[in-house]
Amino acid sequence: MPCVGAQLKSITLGGAVSGVGIEASSFKHGLVHETVLALDVLTPDGRIVTCTPDNEARDLFHGFPNSYGTLGYALKVTARTVPVKSCVALEHVRYRDPKRCFAAIAQHCEQPDSDFLDGVVFGANDLVLTRARFVDHTPYCSDYTFEHIYYRSLREVSHDYLSTRDWLWRWDSDWFWCSKQILAQHPLVRRLLGRKHLNSITYQKIMRWNTRWGVTRMWNRLRGLHAESVIQDVDIPIERAAEFLQFLLREIGILPIWLCPIRSPNPNAYFPLYPLRADTVYVNFGFWDVIRDPVERPRGFYNRKIERMTRELGGIKSLYSDSYYEPEEFWRIYNREAYEALKRKYDPERRQPDLYEKCVLRR
Fold this sequence. Notes:
By secondary structure, this protein is an alpha+beta fold.
């Protein structure tokens, strides 16, 4: 398997490199782009450039992550892999104190005796940390691809077993837990959809259809509600993680929240458009929902709060979702000097929008 696989079947390796890919092995191997050995990139000016960490295109190799296609498209990705066994054994440990949970994450990052590590926040005093490791034999293998739902099992059992394939796609059948938005967690709806259609690709098609036709928007207006989509993945230094969680619970109120620790395996690696400190463990907070408010708020009200707090705590957010930064603030975070140097070299005619135009202005 790739050292850091995709979370969902709808994510490609090229997308995970040009964006920011993460999974439960990131506490050992870093983000997806830290596992890449070489890239063939189709640049906006029509060249195909082979990039490695030490060839003449090393600037594009290190600048490609978090560029979202504005510097080119990955035609070929060479990435490191790790051997696997047939099954994965899971241990779910529950915590009532967030600080103890984050302390346990830090300890496991220092002593990586598992193959995978991630967690879920179900409430202020209800957190589950999952450690998983490859095994050759298991007493049974659970199935969360149809009638049973993986994330619910975290609070129902302390130990579990999955085939390696089902472990890698454990979040896909319910898009983590976002399948609730289309009622796919209801047993009857689940059976009507069938195993074949319980996946992130189906849900994305449905959500795009809804966005195009505005069914949910009309329903919210009829109920007198104002909706704001809050779809975010935010990386926070672990020493500030409990503080960020407290903010989320107090000001945003979205649950569950995915936790995924990140630690760079290479202290000398530097990716200028997504500048995480190599000597720091980060915790990714993934939270995805719609906040429906009876009070009309300014555009991006909740997302702006998240952006401000992320910056205050020394974190950084992925740009795949809605962003509301002013240009000056955005470029202080995402390294305008390095980006403009790459743009001049690989897209001198500005055929593609720049990173701010694409990810904030949505051009």
